[in-house]
Write a structure and sequence with these properties.
hydrolase, 6-stranded antiparallel β-barrel, Peptidase_S1_PA_chymotrypsin, 11% helix, Thrombin, subunit H, serine-type endopeptidase activity, globular, 6-stranded antiparallel beta barrel, Peptidase_S1A, Lectizyme
Length: 318
């Protein structure tokens, strides 16, 4: 049965002709810049059968965080969990295919309230601890939202534009954080569990296919996990992330960060210098120009995400 599920998931993740609904997987960094070696040492690639599908962030030697839809999917209203052994994590390099290290996944847990576009995050346990170096380091979880209209860094190995190629080198760009009231203008269902980041009008950058699960970073802390966007890659609509501050306690309780207060001295923050980005205007215009198509950021916008069922919240998926 697990083999059958694995085959089904492969066709959903990588098939070119699968039926798509209004809820589609769409992740990428559009109009980004190349990262420098060691600039984002917390960044990882989540892989399915050795192929990159999503981004993720190191939060300890044993755990990463990513989006729930990166490790699960739904077929005909039934939820299917990816067998952890099919997944792996690639860390330590800005190059997607070289100079990094690969570790396996032993188990993962999705947020108990994960359904559709809400609660879309997962904690992933590695099969062996990562060895920290200047290129492999954890990032601390934010305990509060970034200030309104502040520059927030996003990054990933997603497509460079809609249906375009994927880069070899990690891409990053800066978006502007919106207040929750403004986020609801674009997404009526949005609440404080979501973080909206708006591209600059003169530089419509953002996430695209394969950027799902990747980080949003402010002041050296993880503030968001890439979830979805309305419209195509590079649209003027905000990219939507799971709000890490909202979920911080759950992430700690379901990883080895429960004693994070006593361990913080051993976890070095990503330096602010590494995350410095060019400032720019974050003009909030064309608010009425909201596309009706909602797409989530994942590899290949091919499989249906509507009619989500409840996830198993009590046990690690295996």
């Amino acid at each position: 049965m697990k083999l059958l599920i694995a085959i089904i998931l492969t066709s959903l993740l990588f098939g070119e002709n699968a039926n798509a609904s209004r809820f589609l997987l769409q992740p990428r960094i559009v109009l980004g810049s190349n990262a420098n070696p060691g600039q984002f040492p917390f960044m990882v690639s989540l892989r399915y059968a050795d192929g990159h599908i999503c981004g993720g962030s190191i939060i300890s030697a044993n755990y990463i965080v990513t989006a729930a839809h990166c490790v699960t999917t739904q077929i005909d209203g039934e939820n299917f969990d990816t067998t952890p052994g099919i997944l792996s994590v690639y860390a330590g390099s800005i190059h997607i295919e070289r100079d990094g290290v690969v570790v396996g996944v032993s188990e993962y847990r999705t947020y108990p309230g994960y359904r559709g576009l809400m609660g879309d995050l997962a904690v992933v346990k590695l099969s062996q601890p990562l060895n920290f170096t200047e290129h492999i380091r954890p990032i601390n979880l934010a305990e509060s939202d970034p200030p309104n209209y502040s520059n927030v860094e996003i990054l990933g190995w997603g497509r460079l534009y809609q249906d375009g190629p994927k880069p070899d080198i990690l891409q990053h760009t800066s978006l502007s954080s919106l207040p929750h009231s403004q986020c609801k203008v674009y997404n009526s269902f949005a609440d404080e569990s979501l973080l909206c980041l708006l591209p600059q009008r003169r530089n419509p950058s953002g996430v695209c296919n394969s950027d799902s699960g990747g980080p949003a970073v402010y002041n050296g802390q993880l503030v968001g996990i890439a979830n979805f966007v309305k419209g195509r890659c590079g649209s003027p609509n905000p990219d939507v992330f799971a709000n890490v501050a909202y979920y911080a306690d759950w992430i700690k309780d379901n990883s080895d960060l429960q004693n994070s207060d006593s361990e913080k001295s051993n976890v070095e923050n990503v330096t602010k210098e590494n995350l410095t980005s060019e400032s720019g205007d974050s003009e909030l215009s064309n608010l009425e120009n909201v596309h009706s198509e909602i797409t989530t950021k994942h590899e290949n916008s091919d499989f249906e995400l509507s009619n989500f069922g409840d996830m198993d919240s009590e046990n690690f998926n295996a």
